[in-house]
Amino acid sequence: MMLRVSDLKQFIYCPRIVYYNYVMPVEKKTTYKMEHGKVAEEEIVKLEKRRKLKPYGLSEGKRIFDCWLTARKIGLTGRLDMLIIKDEDYFPVDFKFTEKSPGKNHLYQLCGYCIVLDEVYKCSADTAFIYLIPSNDVKIYHLDDTIKYRCQEIITEIRDMISHERMPDPTPFRGRCAECEYQNYCRDVW
Fold first, then answer.
1. pLDDT band at 83, cuts 50/70/90?
2. pLDDT over threshold 80, residue 189
3. In contact, 76 and 116? CB cutoff 8 Å
4. Is the pLDDT of residue 160 over 80?
5. Which long-range contacts (CB under 8 A, 24 or more apart) does 165-172 make?
6. Which residues are paired to 86 by β-bridges?
7. I need a labelling partner for 95 at 20 to 30 A (CA). Which of 67, 105, 112, 146 fits?
8. What's residue 35's pLDDT?
């Protein structure tokens, strides 16, 4: 079963989001943050094409925007906002429209992209970036084999949940539920 890299982020944030996408597909409501994020991302792509790579700690490299990647062996696919290639090194960059520090869920999404890059390009992608749009700040992450292994365990957990059609518990962080596009379907929370 092919999963999306973004499923890792969603599963860590609240596993029910992934459940609603695969097991019980329902109509979701588009939030203001989602719409505004898309517009802001388009503007950043225009700017990034002209900028230097210094914020990423690189002196040179090739940028590829909206890079679709599919790793068939591990069954993971996704659209990476930007891929930087320098010699034999591959660096995923994810644009985020948030003023908060990236969370654990964002880290696992980045890790998913690194795992996909490892398979597709036969490399060891272990450095990844999150570009925070509102602050024009770049966060650097070094991902080792331990987190990559945990990421693969999460992929297995997701597939198990889907194949057994088991509704997971909601996130224990109820503040996340207030802006969730699936809040109408979690009657045990509300």
1. very high
2. no
3. yes
4. yes
5. 165/23, 167/16, 167/19, 167/23, 167/24, 168/15, 168/16, 168/19, 169/15, 170/14, 170/16, 171/13, 171/14, 171/15, 171/16
6. 89
7. 146
8. 66
Lookup: tokens for 80: 């990476």
Task: In whole angstroms, give the CA distance from residue 108 to residue 154.
Answer: 9
Find tokens 């198990």 and name the residue.
160
Token pair, residue 30, equals 């588009």
- List of domains in the chain: 3-185 (3.90.320.10)
Cβ-based neighbour number of residue 171 at 10 Å: 18
- Report which residue type is found at 87: D
Of the pLDDT bands very low, low, confident and very high (cuts 50, 70, 90), residue 27 is confident
Q: Measured at the alpha carbon of residue 13, what is the angle toward residues 152 and 169, in degrees to the nearest 5?
A: 90
